[in-house]
Design goal:
Elements lengths: L7 E2 L2 E2 L3 H8 L3 H6 L3 H8 L4 H16 L12 H11 L5 H13 L10 H9 L3 H21 L17 E4 H7 L4 H4 L2 H14 L8 E3 L1 H8 L9 E4 L3 H10 L29 E2 L11
Antiparallel strand pairs: 1-2, 3-5, 3-6, 4-5
Helix pairs in contact: 1-4, 4-5, 4-6, 5-6, 5-7, 6-7, 6-13, 8-11
Length: 288
């Protein structure tokens, strides 16, 4: 059922044409947020048209990741408001993807379950560059792991072999960042800053490097043909959890990350790179 602009959503009258459009969108506002639509709807009255349009993109993204909008679930107000508030200033597609996923993952039938709030905080502390790089690392790693057939106990760091790292050609990383001409002039600095940000937030393991092909081979004794250089990263528990939340699958255990049976869609239009598992790379023999 479609509501007319200016009608009620969750029992709250919200004025303004832009807000009305958001509430009228196939009833999606109240269906996604559940009872939280009341309090969040009140807050939206102060927003501009542009912010409402951006928030609508996040809301629609979340709706597409919720299997059943009529399951009686709800998104806690503190999760819903902060996601939409941040999303209202955001027009980067990957950032919208993450916020929409966190919103969808925050949907619950347990009143006090507001775990999504911490993931909102994590995402809002990252730049659009950081989020894009995080997605690139984890989506590429997921594909490489499924292709390889290897599975690791990511929950227990000592159980993860040293060669369980992911190696990506640096040229692929730069291309996936989709830098414009101005950004490209400082592309190395932007990538390096984002890598360090992900480390600081424990979204990749601290054992990483961005180096030349020759140095990569010297440090790992593995061969990878990448004249542009190599980015080596290892997934972390927090990084995997954020990735699952961004896909709207926050309820899944982290084991789903490298489970070929898990329903994780990482084959969309977002950044990707060829990636290799360290254990799958050819070992250099002495004298090479």
């Amino acid at each position: 059922m479609e509501l007319d602009p200016g009608q009620v959503a969750g029992g709250t009258f919200v004025a303004g044409v832009a807000v009305g459009r958001l509430l009228a969108k196939d009833g999606i506002f109240a269906r996604v947020l559940g009872p939280s639509a009341d309090s969040v709807g009140n807050a939206l009255q102060r927003w501009t048209d542009a912010r409402i349009e951006n928030a609508t993109r996040v809301l629609e993204n979340a709706a597409g990741k919720i299997a059943d909008l009529d399951d009686g679930g709800r998104i806690p107000s503190r999760v819903a408001y902060h996601v939409l508030d941040e999303g209202s200033f955001c027009d980067d597609d990957v950032m919208v993807e993450y916020l929409g996923g966190v919103l969808a993952s925050g949907r619950t039938t347990v009143t006090r379950d507001d775990r999504g709030a911490k993931w909102v905080q994590v995402v809002t502390q990252l730049s659009a560059y950081d989020v894009r790089l995080h997605y690139l690392f984890y989506a590429s790693a997921r594909r490489a792991l499924i292709r390889s057939g290897r599975r690791y106990n990511w929950r227990v760091r000592p159980d993860v072999p040293e060669l369980a790292f992911i190696a990506l050609p640096y040229s692929d990383v730069v291309e996936a960042m989709e830098f414009n001409e101005s950004e490209m002039e400082r592309g190395n600095d932007l990538v390096g800053e984002s890598v360090w940000t992900l480390v600081r937030h424990d979204l990749i393991d601290h054992n990483f490097f961005l180096t030349s092909e020759a140095d990569f081979q010297r440090q790992t004794t593995r061969f990878l043909n990448s004249p542009s250089g190599v980015v080596r990263v290892t997934p972390s528990v927090n990084g995997i959890r954020l990735f699952l939340n961004a896909l709207g699958r926050g309820a899944l255990p982290i084991d789903a990350f490298d489970d070929p049976e898990a329903d994780l869609n990482v084959d969309g239009e977002f950044p990707r790179s060829e990636a290799y598992i360290g254990e799958d790379l050819p070992e250099l023999v002495q004298g090479d």
